[in-house]
Amino acid sequence: MSQLQLSKDSWSSQTVFIMAAVGSAVGLGNLWKFPYITGENGGGAFVLVYLGCVLLIGIPVLLSELALGRAGKANPVQAMANVARENGGSRLWGLLGLNGVLAGALILSFYTVIAGWAVSYFVDSLKGVFIGIDANAVGEHFSGLLANPYELIFWHTVVTLFTVIVVAKGIKSGIEKAITFMMPGLLLILLVLLGYATTTGAFTQSLNFLFAPDFSKLTWQAVLTAMGHAFFTLSIGLGTMMVYGSYLSKEYSIVKAGLWIAFADTIVALLAGLVIFSIVFANGLEAGSGPGLLFQTLPVAFGEMAGGWFFGTLFFALVVMAALSSAISLIEPAVSWFDQNWGIKRVKAAWILGFIIWTIGIGTVLSFNEWSDLHFLGERTFFDSVDYITANIMLPLGGLLMAVFVAWILKDDVRSQEIPLSGNLMSVFIFVLKWIAPIAVMVVFSTNLVADDAVVTMVLITFALYAIYVWNAKRDKS
Ligand code: PFF
Question: What is the pTM of this model?
Fold first, then answer.
């Protein structure tokens, strides 16, 4: 394949790039998913495993993905084809990019539905619906929303439209503008809420829940969830960071950017967790109540705190913005692939893809009402199935193969040019990519062998691919 298609756009500055990447990483994963999966999986021990995954697997894969994007200078499918060709790897590596493009579209299909809940809460908060509301009433408000497919489809449509419009505008006038205003605001509001959380009387309980590990509560399924979430929350494994990296000019530091992204993302998740569990415990709510957690707890706090109307409205506005900055990044790999490889211009590509993704999203909408008894993958609803396949299979598998590529196939000089680490650090980095990250992902996959047939297949494929690539790479290098 010739290297015709290259990204022409570029970020205005390193800071803007970091903000956009943080904008992609910080989203519903931090504010909505992290607290609820932590609640479902018993707290501290789960958080510890999650942090371990971020540190040991997440950061190395993040740096690798950014490096592959910058070296390949194109959308994920083409970038992988480019780097493979230049480094003596097989053309099949393009498939890794395709896995990412597909995963991005699938994630976005449910992401817009959940972001739609946040938009609807923003509007309700603005209207004063939550003033003085108690925990029961919020619970009913939330179930009422989920029971109404038309309302959900309406908000899902609003979010999809917004995403398409921003992405259609391109990097500088679309994505950058949206990001630079949102990220600092989000942090500020979280800090205000943290202040409130300390007054609830359950702050210490919340701290204990998050940070005092009880390993008896940990299952292998929880470890898989933690690992999948590390990929999801850092936006790695699917090519978002690759395509963002492809717009990054050579003089900027990938290492610095990567560390900032991981740090900011983790801090936001932990703060959100602290705030939410303080409110949960103070109001005698259930920590393991699942996807509704954020939407059933925060309004209670806003309902009774001074200035609650103002902060509540602002908070939901920020959840929406955090979600949108991630939504944009989920569709970007596919849009740039359409644009660069298929000659479908950005604007048209964004609309076509938006429509396809919107249609798939209807399945998620229905999972909460009409189709709530329909099971797809095992006992899972449509929404749970898409979430499971993407976060627990496609992203870890994508990340694993990126690690393998950077460790075994990328030429040494390209690697050290993109990720200039000093001698010892570089050896550790390569060791992690070669052995720790792939083996961790595979072990976690295989422990689910008995539990899930889909995983069995993926594990076998993974083992086979790993063996083939390592063998291939060794042969090429010798
Ligand atoms: N990292 C985002 C979040 O935590 O909400 C979700 C996400 C965005 C995942 C982009 C993957 C991605 F490529």
Answer: 0.89
